[in-house]
Amino acid sequence: MFSILNNSELVKKFKKSDLIIKGGLFLLFFLILVAIFAPILAPYDPNSTSLLARLRPPLGFEKFKVGFLLGTDELGRDMLSRLIYGLRFTLFIALVGSLISMTIGTLIGVISGYVGGIIDNIFMMLVDIQIAFPGTLMALLLISVFGSSITILIFVVGISGWENYARVVRGQVIQIKNEPYVSAAQVAGAKPRRIILLHMLPNIASPIIVLYTFGISNIILLESSLSFLGLGIQPPTATLGSMTGLGRDFLSSYPHICVLPAIVILLIALVFLLLGDWLRDSLDVRLQRK
To answer: Which of 60, 72, 113, 269 could be a cystine partner for 170, CB 3.0 to 4.6 Å?
Structure first.
């Protein structure tokens, strides 16, 4: 009945997966551990400045300063410590923001698909409006009005992308709401909430999980873009996007300030895309039957 594979089957598929997928998933696990244990792993306070150590290159370059493995920025702050904390903030914003998108989109999609009629038409009209309105432009508008605190930023990135969940979930609900097990539950007198929670959501969880992983990658890029423009988390708090934005002024002379956080953004976006691609292949019932 359920389209989600159990843990043992996922492990088997992981063992049979390509080396690139395995490496990407291990890298993702490593980056998450680094973000969780940032206070332990970071050698310095990410906001501690030292003008005597400013603009030092990474290890292997001339004028490298011992103790600063990846060099320092324009204020003498340790790049390694700021990358670790920037990874932590960026992942936190992406995970929570994608969770908000998933919650909003799934709720709208379930109601739209299950109820149908005028409710479905209204919700689908909202979806069309959301699709037609560029997400980045909406984020810029909301941040300019409400500010750029971490709470506002999470909310802004969270309401971008919910339409993808709504469309997919609506289609899945319409497809299964006339299945025999749903009809049997209705005949037995089960309330709509019970039918949705116990019979529908478990069967459509696979595409939702896949969309969630892809959504994380999109939100990471959106948050990085906003921070790059100076509209994200404000200094001295480090996010990968803000570090890249601040470092662009030194790109020609001290490229490590901009390039290092940009590489980390690329890596985490890539590994989440790999995770989403692997989950899509692993949780797709049609592929399991082949």
So the answer is: 113
Residue 10 structure tokens = 């996922």
pLDDT tens by residue, 119-176: 999 999 999 888 887 777 778 888 878 877 788 888 888 888 889 999 999 998 988 8
pTM: 0.84
Residue keyed to tokens 């969880």: 205
First to last CA, the chain: 18
Question: Are the beta carbons of 176 and 230 closer than 8 angstroms?
Answer: no
Pairwise CA distance, residues 35 & 193, whole Å:
37
3-state secondary structure of 72: strand
Q: Count CA atoms closer than 13 A to 157's CA, side-chain side.
A: 32
- Over residues 48-67, the pLDDT tens digits come to 888 888 889 898 888 888 88
User: How many Å apart are CA 196 and CA 167, to the nearest integer?
Assistant: 17
Burial of 286 (0-12, 13-18, 19+ CB in 10 A): exposed
Q: Give the residues of the chain that fall short of pLDDT 50.
A: 1-5, 286-287, 289-290
Q: How many residues does the chain have?
A: 290
Q: How far apart are CA 264 and CA 254, in angstroms?
A: 17
Closest to 85 in 3D by CA, of 39, 49, 154: 39
Domain covering 65-264 assigned CATH 3.40.50.300 in the classification: no
Whole-number pLDDT of residue 261: 92
133: DSSP letter: S
Question: CA triplet 219, 223, 225: central angle to 5 degrees?
Answer: 115
